[in-house]
Design a protein that fits this description.
Layout: H1 3-25, H2 31-38, H3 46-59, H4 63-70, H5 72-92, H6 96-124, H7 130-158, H8 163-166, H9 168-182, H10 195-215, H11 222-245, H12 259-289, H13 294-322, H14 324-341, H15 351-375, H16 385-417, H17 427-446
Helix pairs in contact: 1-6, 1-7, 1-9, 3-6, 3-10, 4-5, 4-6, 4-16, 5-6, 5-9, 6-16, 7-13, 7-15, 10-11, 10-16, 12-13, 12-15, 12-16, 12-17, 13-14, 13-15, 14-15, 14-17, 16-17
């Protein structure tokens, strides 16, 4: 397939990815207004956030089989329709029960839309163009957690919370139009559906995600949380057992044999946890620790987003020049150091210094995220690509959710070790939380040491040299 069309598909999937990720975070600042509209307590609206994330976690494992069984274009286009229609239902909601139902339906669409879209990109882009294609489709995962809360607050303040969901309608229509014209229909595979694998994997993902969500609450139910996490481990082990004995497993574990892929699951999960914690901690630090208002806090956090965008210009060239392993090691260390440096900023720190630090944080997290997402599929053969993509899509939301839970736990642990007289969070407690997150980011780099120096070289474009002109002598 010519690269221009593959590039257009990457942009299409990136747009779908942005819609899906944005809807996971954009309602956070709209919760008070929505609770008032539904006549419930704001805390009750947490089920709307949880229902969406849990639906994603449970249904993502089935996305690969659906794409093989009914064709990638059919499933991707259907997912866009489901996501768009459910967005309208969210906006029409008059009570919490109907809103929760609409969010589950929206999670169903998102669970099919993004994994299948990324699979289409992996199949359509040439090996040498994969770095650029992945760089395009991963930026929404970095941008949405940063842009979601301030955008939701802006829409809720100046318009209505309903428009948070109605805005998906024109985006969905445009995405559907391009999907039907750009996405090729893949050959269908008649392999049977692994019902036991789906049940075990779904319960494991549900238990893990709900347990992690409980951990992030200010007063988690510890007994239920422990039971959910233990259940996740047990059912996860059973799911692995089923995948190894099943001839056609729902989640193919074969790619874990490759270090270039397993790195993105183990060390990559720790990395995603660290960068998932940063957008959670920074607004709290600026508003509670520094005493800034929400608007100024949001503007400072946008520095991270600016770094994400700028790095996209240099990602492909950097990987082609230095290689995957070197970038993962050096950039991973820089990412951890920058997060640790956030533990040094105070209200007296000059604003340009804070902005510069957050900008560099955006640069490093963007580079590491793209590098991991690309090297994951460097050595995966085409016939194993679907299974590897499904496994990667399961791990990513778990890592991001884990980051928020770890950040919340770090804040609570710091509050116990260094209690503030007023009972509110102190600057010291935020600094300790950043130290914990920074150390997690550094530990994530250890997994990179075992990667072969030439890993991912098949994806790199050779450096072109300008031929030297020799003066001919007569």
């Amino acid at each position: 397939m010519p690269f221009p069309r593959a590039s257009a598909i990457s942009l299409l999937v990136a747009g779908a990815f942005f819609m899906e990720n944005l809807d996971g975070t954009v309602i956070v600042t709209a919760i008070p207004a929505m609770a008032k509209s539904f006549g419930v307590h704001p805390v009750d609206l947490s089920i709307g956030v949880s229902a969406y994330i849990l639906a994603l976690a449970v249904l993502i494992p089935a996305s690969g089989w659906l794409a093989d069984r009914f064709g990638a274009r059919t499933i991707f286009a259907s997912a866009i329709v489901v996501f768009t229609v459910s967005s309208v239902l969210c906006g029409f909601s008059q009570n919490l029960a109907f809103f929760t139902f609409a969010r589950v339906l929206q999670g169903l669409g998102g669970a099919m839309m993004v994994p299948v879209g990324r699979l289409v990109v992996l199949r359509s882009a040439r090996k040498e163009d994969l770095i650029s294609a992945i760089a395009i489709i991963v930026w929404p995962g970095l941008a949405a957690p940063v842009l979601g809360p301030p955008l939701g607050g802006f829409i809720t303040t100046y318009f209505s919370w309903h428009w948070i969901f109605y805005l998906n309608v024109p985006l969905g229509i445009v995405a559907l139009w391009f999907a039907l014209r750009l996405v090729p229909q893949s050959e269908r595979d008649e392999k049977p559906f692994d019902w036991l694998g789906f049940l075990l994997t779904g319960i494991a993902c549900f238990s893990f995600m709900l347990g992690i969500e409980f951990l992030s609450r200010s007063d988690p139910p510890w007994l239920e949380t422990g039971g959910l996490l233990l259940g996740g481990v047990i059912f996860g082990a059973l799911a692995v057992w089923q995948a190894r004995r099943e001839p056609h497993p729902l989640v193919d574990l074969w790619a874990l044999r490759l270090k270039s892929f397993s790195l993105t699951i183990w060390g990559g999960t720790l990395f995603r946890a660290s960068i998932g914690a940063v957008p959670f901690l920074l607004p709290l630090l600026f508003q509670i620790g520094f005493g800034l208002d929400a608007f100024v806090s949001g503007l400072l956090v946008l520095s991270v987003f600016a770094g994400n965008i700028v790095m996209k210009i240099f990602t492909t060239g950097t990987l082609n020049r230095f290689g995957f392993r070197r970038v993962l090691l050096v950039n991973g260390l820089l990412n951890g150091i920058v997060i640790l440096a956030c533990a040094l900023i105070t209200p007296e720190t000059p604003v340009p210094v804070i902005v510069g630090l957050l900008f560099v944080s955006g640069l490093t997290r963007s580079m590491q995220f793209t590098t991991l997402a690309t090297i994951a599929f460097a050595e995966v053969p085409p016939e194993r690509m679907n299974g590897a993509n499904t496994l990667s899509n399961i791990a990513q939301p778990l890592g991001m959710a884990l980051g928020i839970a770890v950040a919340a736990l770090a804040l609570r642990a710091a509050a116990l070790a260094f209690p503030a007289g007023t009972g509110a969070l102190s600057l010291t407690q935020f600094h300790l939380a950043f130290v914990v997150i920074g150390l997690i980011a550094l530990v994530a780099v250890i997994d990179t040491v075992g990667v072969a120096p030439d890993a991912g070289d098949a994806l790199r474009k050779p450096r072109t040299r300008t031929p030297q002109l020799r003066r001919s002598t007569q």
